[in-house]
Amino acid sequence: MSNNFKGGRGRRKERGPRTNDQIRIPECRLMSDEEQYGVVSIDKAREIAEELGVDLIEIAPTAKPPVVKLMDYGKFKYEQQKKAAEAKKKQAKVQLKEIQLRPNIEAHDLETKLKKAYKFLENGDKVKFVMQFRGREMAYKDMGKEKFESILAGVCEEASAAIESPIKMMGNRIITIVAPVKKK
C-alpha cells in the first residue's frame, strides 16, 4: 500500500477554470471577444476553437447553460493575475500600534510619545494607548484615568482621530484604541 493517499475519491484539486477537454457538458453558451455564437454543443464549440487556434475556457460554470469563452488560456491567466494584483494594491493594510504611558510621565516624554502616535495615525494605522500603574501608583488610578482621558482628547483633536473602543480598566492598566477618521 502506498503513502500517496490524499483523501477524497481520486479527484484532482481544481486550479482555475476548466479548459478544452476538461469541460464535460452536453451544450454551452459560446462566446468570444468579438462574437456571440449562442447555445451550441460542446463538440461544435471544440471544432470552432480548433479552427481559430484558441482554447475553450469555462467562464460561468453555474449558469444555465454554462458559459464558455474562446480565447488564449495564457492570456486569460495573465489577465486574472493582473486583476488580482490590482485588487491587492487597493486593499488597505491597517496595523495596530501601541503607545505605553505611565501616570507620572514627564511633559517632554509625553510629547515624544504623542509625536509617534500622530505619525502612526497619519499613516492610517490604529493606535492602542496603554497606561500602566505600578506599586503605589495603584492608589491614584482616578487621577491617572483623568490624565489618560485628557491625553486622548488632545490626540483626537490634534490628529483628527476617534476613540474606537471605550476606555477600559484591566487590572493595573487602562486601555483604549484610537483610529484615524477616514477622509471622504
TrEMBL record:
It comes from the Bacteria. PROSITE patterns: IF3 (PS00938). Gene3D superfamilies: Translation initiation factor 3 (IF-3), C-terminal domain, Translation initiation factor 3 (IF-3), N-terminal domain. The keyword Cytoplasm applies. Keywords: Coiled coil, Cytoplasm, Initiation factor, Protein biosynthesis. Residues 94-180 form the Translation initiation factor 3 C-terminal domain. It is found in: Cytoplasm. Residues 1-23 are annotated as: Disordered. InterPro entries: T_IF-3_C_sf, T_IF-3_N_sf, Translation_initiation_fac3_CS, Translation_initiation_fac_3, Translation_initiation_fac_3_C, Translation_initiation_fac_3_N. Monomer. Belongs to the IF-3 family. NCBIfam families: infC. This is Translation initiation factor IF-3. The lineage of its organism: Bacteria, Pseudomonadati, Bdellovibrionota, Bacteriovoracia, Bacteriovoracales. The gene is infC.
